[in-house]
Amino acid sequence: NAGVTQTPKFRVLKTGQSMTLLCAQDMNHEYMYWYRQDPGMGLRLIHYSVGEGTTAKGEVPDGYNVSRLKKQNFLLGLESAAPSQTSVYFCASSSRVAGGGYNEQFFGPGTRLTVL
Amino acid sequence: GQQVMQIPQYQHVQEGEDFTTYCNSSTTLSNIQWYKQRPGGHPVFLIQLVKSGEVKKQKRLTFQFGEAKKNSSLHITATQTTDVGTYFCAGPGGNQFYFGTGTSLTVIP
Q1: Cα angle value B80/B83/B85 (rounded, 5°)
Q2: How much is the average pLDDT of B18-47?
Q3: Which of A35, A103, A108, B23 would bridge with A4, disulfide CB 3.0–4.6 Å?
Q4: Phi and psi of A83, rounded to 5°?
Q5: SS3 of A113, please?
Q6: Can you tell me the mean pLDDT for B80-103?
Q7: Taking 90 as the threshold, does the pLDDT of residue B69 lie above it?
Q8: Cα separation of A107 and A100, whole Å?
Q9: Angle at A112 between CA B12 and CA B74, to 5 degrees
Q10: Exposure of A65 by Cβ count < 10 A (0-12 exposed, 13-18 middle, 19+ buried)?
Q11: In A, residues 60-79, which contact B (CB 8 Å cutoff)?
Q12: Contacts of residue A105 in chain B, CB cutoff 8 Å?
């Protein structure tokens, strides 16, 4: 099993350009998450999904959109990139616990995005 | 909103010394998770604590969950160079997880 994969690994954008980050997991997990990681600020949740066809906003959703058309894929889109979106982006997935509760999150290797 | 704070932000120790990081939540948590991120890597799950006052050990690592379920700690005994990295705690809020700011551990050989 590949676990959680992310493409691309690196990307440089100019202000105003758009792009889509792809996350794929092969563990049949229901939950998927997109985080951004900035120095000294830990991991902040951008958007998440609790199942195919559903998405919800996290802590810092502005400037991003997501889609979960297939259970194994979670796409993160930047419509008009800004320098403030320079960051490392991590995707994660986890399974649902019967009766509530939480399981561990499995993280992808990350995408390093620079917006000039 | 919910906040999860960690202290210290950075810690440098000599190899063989002990290390502790503390995690505090603004709200009561149903459970808490700990992750380790090696330099240049991605977070990797270490453990989950669920019960009030719970203590779990993994070799040289000891994890505690506070009685009020609002704080937690990770203690490493006799650090080794392989312990280098950033340690994060994370607590749930609804379907989300709120990560602490992390403690970056440097081990000096």
Answers
A1: 145
A2: 95
A3: A108
A4: -55, -30
A5: strand
A6: 91
A7: yes
A8: 21
A9: 30
A10: middle
A11: none
A12: 33, 35, 43, 45, 90, 97
